[in-house]
Amino acid sequence: MAVIRLALAQHDFPVGAVAANTAKVRNLMAQARAGGAALAVFPELTISGYPPEDLLLRPSFLASCQKAIQALAAETNGLTAIVGFPHSQGEVYNAAAFLQGGEIEQITHKQALPNYGVFDDKRYFRAGRTSAIAVIDGVRVGYLICEDIWQAEPAAHAAAAGAELIVVINASPWDDAKQAAREEVLVTRARETGCALVYLNLVGGQDEVVYDGGSLMVNGDGTIAARAPAFVDALLWADFDSADRSLHARDWPAVADGSRQATLYAALVRGIRDYIDKNGFGGVLLGLSGGIDSALTLALAVDALGPDRVTAVMMPMRYTSQLSLDGARTQAERLGVAYHVIDIEPTYNAFIAALTPLFEGKQPDITEENLQSRTRGVMLMALSNKHSRLLLATGNKSEMAVGYATLYGDMCGAYAPLKDVYKTEVYRLSRWRNEDEARTTGHAGDWIIPPAVIERPPSAELRDNQTDQDSLPPYDELDAILARFIEQEQSQAEIIAAGFDEKTVHRVVRLVLVNEFKRRQSAPGPRVTTRAFGRERRYPITSGWK
After folding, report:
1. Residue 94 is assigned to a ligand binding site
2. Between 183 and 538, whose confidence is greater?
3. How confident is the model at residue 536 (pLDDT cuts 50, 70, 90)?
4. 35 a known binding residue?
5. pLDDT at residue 412, rounded to an integer
6. Distance (Å, rounded) from C-alpha 472 to C-alpha 404?
7. Which of 24, 110, 278, 419 is flagged as catalytic?
8. What is the DSSP string of 257-324?
9. Which family does it belong to (predicted)?
10. Is 110 one of the annotated active-site residues of the chain?
């Protein structure tokens, strides 16, 4: 019987950054060697980053990844490593290289290729056929790639070949239901096979997807040995004892707050930070309206980037309330961000004057309301261009779902942090952030988002005494219908049967279906639910299905 030490690299490996990723692996391998690890483990497609998408169609990119894995293999004397990379053999495979003794000792290919949700593996990869087994200091180790563990056969084949420990390397995106599903699958596989399981996951934001890490270890009897924190980069140390097939974490980072709101907030912060930093922007800009959506977006941006990299702009007009003016200024001052006020009334009036001859004979309607929003959009985009600060859109998923947003107005922006966050969740996150601030400072009244902004009735403030509920059902009702129709794919009949008003259901569903064209033009934002708009939920714009 033997005990081996593992070093698990729960880290970010950005897409396309082959040289930087290789250097990072080299550095982490050195740390693992210095710490006495027998095996260092790295995530799925470490070298290329995940998902590399159509970069995989470029021979030069594949050749660069192959050269990198060969270079790393030459540096493994005294250490064994499992590293993910795209393996090209005429056809391309999602592969894991087993590096040992200065050589690429083995290569295994991902067997189960996901082609649902955000995954397009079958577009790029061919499926592997066998589960690999290797020996490390007398311990028989099987190693699989991500989706393989969600199917029974790959783990069963590894166990049948004599594996005592199965290592699974992953690039598994986070959503608010994912961790429970992972644990259930891993416990099931451990009990089926009798093998201990190490589940190492990527961490970081990549366009519309966020990876949480959240790595897990499960003992051979199916008990959870350890859980790594979400959205934390760490080299995780662990020991595997083959005598009882148990795993033991060594000083893993503690989870300060494992609540749903805390994890979701961390996901949004990580999404913002990585999108801005990986795309080389110095900072962000946003319209701060005095409403809850922009207030939460501001808090997220400051937590992600720091106040020096965030600019807020209030753009009042005749319908802007004093509550909005006070709330925006108070929050901007509290968070220490650059804050500017631009009165849009003169610009709006100039637009109206120019258009009046062509509006003759028509009564004012939503056109004039949208023009206010588009005036603000023009201002913000000009500031974004001039100051090289990426513009954040502040709309939420409820609004995106029913089209309660203005193209080229409040939808302007290069990144939308709340795009996959329902309005009711916006309220929960805002209250959680204030509670967290009070806990952190020890002062019960401390806040990050003005309480008056949270408690006020939501309003676009595009006409006198306007509220969102003039046009939409109450958000509790709206979001419940949307979740059933979008996440659960329930029919209108099923939603009505669950107790919702028939006319309201028909109206909400119609709004979702007819506003697909708007969502196609919206900014990307972090996917945090099980059915995000964008690369996951792909409905046709032109459709006869109602």
Report:
1. no
2. 183
3. confident
4. no
5. 96
6. 9
7. 110
8. --SHHHHHHHHHHHHHHHHHHHTT-S-EEEE--SSHHHHHHHHHHHHHH-GGGEEEEE---TT--HHH
9. Belongs to the NAD synthetase family. In the C-terminal section; belongs to the NAD synthetase family.
10. yes
Active site residue 461: no
Residue with tokens 């970069």: 55
- Is 175 annotated to bind ligand? no
DSSP β-bridge partners for residue 286:
312
* E-assigned strand segments in 154-215: 165-170, 196-201, 203-206, 209-212
Is 397 labelled as part of a ligand binding site? no
> In percent, how much of the chain has pLDDT > 90?
88
Q: What are phi and psi of 238, to 5 degrees?
A: -155, 155
Residue 526: cis peptide before it, omega within 30 degrees of 0: no
Residues 6+ apart with CB under 8 A from 256: 262
In the predicted structure, residue 280 carries a pLDDT above the cut 70: yes
Chain centroid offset of residue 285 CA = 20
pLDDT in tens, 126-150: 999 999 999 999 999 999 999 999 9
Domain ranges for the chain, please list them: 3-255, 261-472+515-520
Of 317 and 535, which is predicted with more confidence?
A: 317
Domain 3-255, CATH class in plain words:
alpha beta
Q: Is 427 annotated as a binding residue?
A: no
Helix pair angle (366-387, 345-359), 10° resolution: 130
Q: What one-character DSSP code corresponds to residue 491?
A: -
- CA separation for the pair 272, 257 (Å, rounded): 20
3-state helix, strand, coil in the chain (%, to 5): 40, 20, 40
Sheet-wide strand order for 80-89: 103-109, 91-100, 80-89, 39-41, 3-10, 234-241, 246-250
Does the annotation mark 455 as catalytic?
no
Q: Annotate 149-163 with three-state secondary structure.
A: HHCHHHHHHHHHCCC
Determine how β-strand 139-145 pairs with β-strand 132-136: antiparallel
CATH number for the segment(s) 261-472+515-520: 3.40.50.620
The overall average pLDDT reported for the chain is 94
Q: Tell me which residue of 278, 281, 279, 271 sits closest to 525, measured CA to CA.
A: 271
Concatenating the DSSP letter of every residue in 62-106 gives HHHHHHHHHHHHTT-TT-EEEEEEEEEESEEEEEEEEEETTEEEE
Phi, psi of 262 (to 5 degrees): -65, -40
Task: Please give the backbone phi and psi of residue 342, each rounded to the nearest 5 degrees, phi first.
Answer: -125, 115
Per annotation, catalytic residue among 24, 44, 278, 461: 44
Query: Per the annotation, does 491 bind a ligand?
Result: no
82 annotated ligand-binding residue: no
Paired tokens of 120? 């397009």
Q: Which of 24, 65, 146, 147 is catalytic?
A: 146
